[in-house]
Amino acid sequence: MRIAINARTLEYPSGGPKEYLISLVNALLALNTGHELVLYYPHASHLGTFAGATEIVLPVRNRLAFDWLALPLALRRRPCDAAFFPSSNMPPAIPCPAVVAMLDLGYFHPTLSMYRAADTAYMRWAIRYSARRAKRLVAISEYTRHDVLRLTKARPTQVAVTHLACDPLYHAPVDASALAGFRRRHNLDRHFILYSGNISPRKNLPTLLAAYARMADLAPCDLVLTGGLAWSEDFDVLVREAGLTDRVRRLGHVPRHEMPLLYRSAHVLAFPSLFEGFGLPILEAQACGVPVICADATSLPEVAGHGALLVDPHSVDAWAVGLARIVTDHALRQALRDEGYANEARFTWERTAVATLDALIAAAG
Fold first, then answer.
1. In 3D, which of 233, 272, 268 has the Cα closest to residue 250?
2. Domain shared by 174 and 121, yes or no
3. Are residues 314 and 172 in the same domain?
4. Are residues 181 and 137 in the same domain?
5. Measured between alpha carbons, how far is 233 from 253 in angstroms, rounded to an integer?
6. Contact assessment for residue 41 and residue 7, using Cβ atoms and an 8 Å cutoff
7. Are residues 33 and 97 in the same domain?
8. Any residues with CB less than 8 A from the CB of 313 and at least 6 apart, and which?
9. What are residue 98's phi and psi, to 5 degrees?
10. What is the pLDDT of residues 285-331, one digit of tens each?
């Protein structure tokens, strides 16, 4: 069977959609089932990303032009048995059966102010269209599956759950000299609480910052954040007003291959997000032996299992208490570390790849 895959999300600098695509395609290739995977890229710089796949460049950088024009035309010229869309939507005019991965339905939760108005309007239409048009849907959590069934006209038998998992790079041993060099380059010479992920209003970082301000004097532990620097002005104002300029560090985008070094340097992972389709940083931290404190919201309890301290995402007081506990209580940290290892082991990309392939085979008939 020949399977087309829209690989446009490789253009993203970082984030869950890109991690999902990379890890899933590598796992599908590792199954060695004899099916041909045909990856469609918007730029030649991505050639060679997936050894063993057929890679085709459609030199169109605009995302709508790539999805709506270039990709359907390419699939008519080179027919495939099924097409896979990894970013919650598919365009019209796809000439073969399709499977769409539903990552989250945050566009239907306007009170969280997650996206621009134009993007929200487009994606609400696109997600509902995809639920009607796709032969199969795969949701990355039970929470997301519930949202799909609640907010679209998808049939329960049409939607399978295919959880995410840690990339194998987070399980690889880390060289002590490489770890020391990473910490030195980034001036990470003290214990720190890590936030790993993109930056947007739904990530609830003002609550994390306010809670950290209340407990910062209790322990010599800084706050370090990854993610884009676009949300600089408002966040930097909050940091200055809290008097934490010397205690809060923003690293921007950390290269993917260095993320295990960042996690293993961290004292704690804090993940206060109000809304997540999955919450992959929780598993990445657990795989690296980092105690986790996260919001008791949406899919996060499902993902974290017993390996995280769950906190009301709306309560600064609860976060301040939780951060102080997890930073200072050695027994709690060890318990969360042990539970985290066990919880992370429940999720594997091999299992996800098999379930995704099953959906593609069923879609192709």
1. 233
2. no
3. yes
4. no
5. 17
6. yes
7. yes
8. 204, 207, 272, 273, 274, 295, 296, 297
9. -125, 150
10. 999 999 999 999 999 999 999 999 999 999 999 999 999 999 999 99
Q: Are residues 180 and 310 in the same domain?
A: yes
**Domain co-membership, 320 together with 201:** yes
Structure tokens at 84: 């896979």
Residue-level pLDDT at 114? 66
User: pLDDT value at position 291?
Assistant: 98
Using an 8 Å Cβ cutoff, are 266 and 194 in contact? yes
Q: What is the pLDDT of residues 118-168, one digit of tens each?
A: 888 999 999 999 999 999 999 999 999 999 999 999 999 999 999 999 999
pLDDT per position as a tens digit, 90-126: 999 999 999 999 999 999 987 766 677 888 899 999 9
Q: What CATH number is attached to the domain comprising 243?
A: 3.40.50.2000
Task: Quote the pTM value.
Answer: 0.91
Cα–Cα distance measured from residue 28 to residue 47, given in angstroms and rounded to the nearest whole number: 18
Q: Confirm if 43 and 61 have CB atoms less than 8 A apart.
A: yes
pLDDT value, residue 231: 58
Give the chain's largest Cα–Cα span: 64
Nearest to 70 by CA among 42, 43, 38: 42
Q: How far is CA 204 from CA 21, 114, 126, 331, in A?
A: 25, 11, 26, 28
Structural domain including 225 reads 168-344
- The pair of structure tokens assigned to 352 is 């996800």
CB-count burial class (<10 Å; 0-12, 13-18, 19+) for 61: exposed
Question: Is the separation of the CB atoms in 80 and 3 below 8 Å?
Answer: yes
Q: Give the contacts of 17 (CB within 8 A, at least 6 positions apart).
A: 9, 86, 87, 103
Q: Which helix (H) or strand (E) holds 356?
A: helix 349-364
Do 353 and 273 share a structural domain?
A: no
Q: Are residues 258 and 192 in the same domain?
A: yes
- Quote the pLDDT of residue 287: 98
**Six-digit token string for 313:** 């995402």
Total domains in the chain come to 2
